[in-house]
Write a structure and sequence with these properties.
Residues 63-257 form the Aminotransferase class V domain. Keywords: Pyridoxal phosphate. This is L-cysteine desulfhydrase 1 isoform X2. The protein is α/β, with parallel strands linked by helices. It has helices at residues 10-16, 28-31, 36-51, 53-76, 89-99, 116-126, 146-159, 181-190, 210-213, 258-263, 271-274, 276-285, 288-302, 328-340, and strands spanning 83-86, 107-111, 133-137, 163-169, 194-199, 217-221, 233-237, 308-312, 315-319. A seven-stranded mixed β-sheet has the order 1-7-6-5-4-2-3, with helices on both faces. A two-stranded antiparallel sheet has the order 8-9. The protein is globular.
Length: 345
Amino acid sequence: MDLSKIEFGARMKTECFHFEEGYIFVNHGAYGEVPVKIRDKQKQLLDTMNDNTGTYFREVTPRMYMEAINAAAAFLGADPNNLVLVQNATSGVNTVLRAFPWKQGDGILTTTYTYKAVQNTCHRVSQLPTGIKVHQFEIRFPISNESELTKAMTSCLDQNPSIKLAILDHITSPTALVFPLKKMIEECRKRGVLVLVDGAHAPGQMEINLEELRPDFYTGNFHKWMYTPRGCAFLWVHKDHQGWCTPLVTSNKYKEGFQMEFCVQGTRDDIPYFLIPEAIQFYKDVGGMEGSEKLFLDLTHLHKTNTAIYCVQGELYIRLSVNIYNEMADYERLAEVLCQLPRKH
């Protein structure tokens, strides 16, 4: 099947995906969706694992893990030696924050739109005996230019010199705001502040070159916009920190190398990781970055359509996630439902 010739919308939905009848799916960004082709391969690998478990974990897992690492690295512009796989971006954030060499009085910097699970992790770490303090810089709309974000961050850093780590989104989850990461990382570097980028929604939506961007840490999901099964994510760690940045679970490969510690984690189901190469190929076959970007721009500018609900500055907003199986009828139906809801005056 030549995926590049399938029209986005109803035909793509019918031929490449399988959904429960009667539902509309306009919240792709929450969990991602898995194409039938990838689901079939997942089932096949599950049978392979269960047919000969010992061989699978001893021989198949190490080989397929490294194949996945190499495919992910090529897609992300990363040195494979700096990359490991984790179950989701939240796991990546937890990995860094739990292993970080905190000292008494150190601080973490977040924003008003830092993802809730990440904020929760920061507050959990703040309860450690070292007494970490969580700082937050405010982001308010409308934003006239990128420098406003950078200035808001640097102002908070300058007022709180004890901050040792800044957590910055690549794309914010509630508002889809893209941070000017290069400039923000540069300003953090000037102040000796390490940077952890939460790129949960970036792979598949943004061009990423990790060796060029060079934060201290970057974590992102493959199961949201890259079509792998859940959960499948990565953590990129600058080589300067690989000595202390260890996985949340200590297992049989303790102290046998950065990648080996993350790779060998007992009987964890790594099949979602192993399907990274196939998922990347699917993404490319349907048009890659240029297919997804055109769809986004068409829906935004031609149809004025941009579903999760968030409160932003006291107002409720609906975030509509768009992917290749959607069509305008999905959003028309959603609009009809919204119009039928009672309104408070």
